[in-house]
Amino acid sequence: MDDGHDIYRVFFYHDAVLVANRFQSPPQDEFDILAAWQTLAQTYNLDLCLCIASCLRRGIVNSEEAERFEHLGDSLASGFSISGLGQLIEATLVADRTITFGA
Amino acid sequence: MRQILFVLSHGPGSTIAAQESFDALLAGSAFAEASALFIGNGVLQLITSDSQLEMPPRKNFNVAFSAMPDFDIHRIYCCAASFHERGLIHQDLCIRPKLLQPDAVAELWKTFDRVLCF
């Protein structure tokens, strides 16, 4: 980012959606990956987007989905949004580079 | 229309990753000209359901592979080295992908506008 690149979107798929589980409480001497993403997103105004099918399988729900599936509450951390695979494909087509991590 | 190559490298069974990757391929076919490359343990996804044990709670999602042409996914490739390393024969497969030698796989990547690895 400091070199002048723009990040169009960060898309979380597969197990990566678990990053957005707001109930995680890592031990104090371990890296807090959720807090790190939230700080990064705030600093650079990033669009952090999660795949809804991956989320529902793994118990990551926003308030609307929690209501739809009659869960007691939502589990989605702030700073993230839940959307569909179309967002991944659209971003791939719009951006001049697509970088995949941990496939 | 942009051309996207979906590289599918997860084995079937132990995790949901292979099935989710196939979902991404189908989603991609709605927005672009999508093609598939099965490589590494991903080639094991191609084994016909008849010769695979059904392992609950996973379902044999590869019964949908034969529907790929209906989603305008016509170019389906398989890494020949991955295929032979795992002792597969054509009779094991549920579809007929085009087998590519490793040097042809390397060339294949260059012909696509975008490559998405799963």
Looking at the overall shape, the CATH architecture of chain A is: 3-Layer(aba) Sandwich
Question: What sequence of helices (H) and strands (E) makes up the elements of chain A?
Answer: EHEHHEH
Structural class of chain A: alpha/beta
Strand % of chain A is: 5-15%
Can you give the mean pLDDT of chain A? 95
| Structural Rg of chain B | 13 Å
Distance from N terminus to C terminus of chain B (CA atoms, Å) equals 22 Å
Number of strands of chain A: 3
CATH structural architecture of chain B: 3-Layer(aba) Sandwich
**In percent, how helical is the residue content of chain A?**
25-40%
Main sheet summary of chain A: 3 strands, parallel
Give a count of the beta strands of chain B, DSSP E runs of length 2 or more: 5
Give the strand line-up of the largest sheet of chain B: 4-3-2-1-5
Tell me about this structure.
The complex is a heterodimer of chains A (103) and B (118). The longest helix of chain A is centred in the middle third of the chain and has 12 residues, at 33-44. Chain A is built from four helices and three strands, in the order βαβααβα. The mean pLDDT of chain A is 95. Chain A has 103 residues and is an alpha/beta fold. Chain A has a three-stranded parallel β-sheet. The radius of gyration of chain B is 13 Å and the shape is globular. Chain B has a five-stranded parallel β-sheet with strand order 4-3-2-1-5. Chain B is an alpha/beta fold. The A-B interface holds A 13-15, 51, 53-54, 57, 84-86, 88-90, 92-93, 98, 100, 103 and B 2, 4, 7, 9, 16-17, 20, 23-24, 27-28, 30-32, 114-118.
